[in-house]
Design a protein that fits this description.
182 residues, mainly alpha, two-stranded antiparallel sheet, 72% helix
Length: 182
């Protein structure tokens, strides 16, 4: 005498089947790790919910609107920290479990690719993409401004100065190259 599957297991099976069909239909024959992306979205939602909860528990009112100077400072600091985390040679040990070294990519930056292993692929994509990383960095810096404004603005000022120094280094190198014909 067989036992009927529990309603929960049937629902889980239908959901699993739906997700597989959706993934196959979406991918058009390409290997797209939708499950990993879904996990990343859930992780980001949890991360931002935790920050929002911490801000709310702190009891400080939110500003009416962001100050233009803070938006500019956050943008430059986000740019620099995102590139530092996702491209810099010195941070490659953080990315190594999820990526594969391909070669150099510009001054002091690396070209890496996500590991093909599906469990590490999504993290590898996030870790090597400054655009993807910037979403997490901007959220963190924004939360930092709400929780620890002085310390966060100080750190963002340092990152902005670093971005300015990088710009000057590249401009200087270009001028030297132009004047020496290299």
């Amino acid at each position: 005498m067989g036992t009927a599957p529990a309603p929960d297991s049937r629902r889980a099976g239908r959901l699993h089947g739906f997700l597989q069909r959706t993934g196959r239909g979406y991918s058009a024959g390409h290997d797209r790790p939708l499950g990993g992306y879904l996990a990343a979205l859930a992780g980001f939602a949890t991360y931002t919910t935790a920050w929002a909860t911490a801000v709310r528990l702190r009891g400080r009112p939110l500003p009416e609107r962001p100050e233009p100077w803070d938006v500019a400072l956050t943008a430059v600091a986000t740019f620099r920290l995102s590139r530092l985390l996702s491209k810099a040679s010195v941070t490659s040990p953080l990315r190594a479990p999820f990526t594969r070294y391909v070669g150099p990519q510009g001054p002091a930056e690396l070209h890496e690719e996500a590991q093909p292993d599906s469990a590490r692929h999504t993290v590898g994509e996030l870790a090597t993409c400054p655009f993807c990383m910037s979403v997490w960095v901007a959220s963190t810096l924004t939360a930092g401004q709400l929780l620890w404004p002085r310390a966060t603005r100080t750190a963002m000022g340092a990152l902005t100065a670093l971005a300015g120094a990088d710009t000057l280094q590249l401009a200087y190198g270009a001028l030297v190259g132009k004047t020496t014909g290299e």
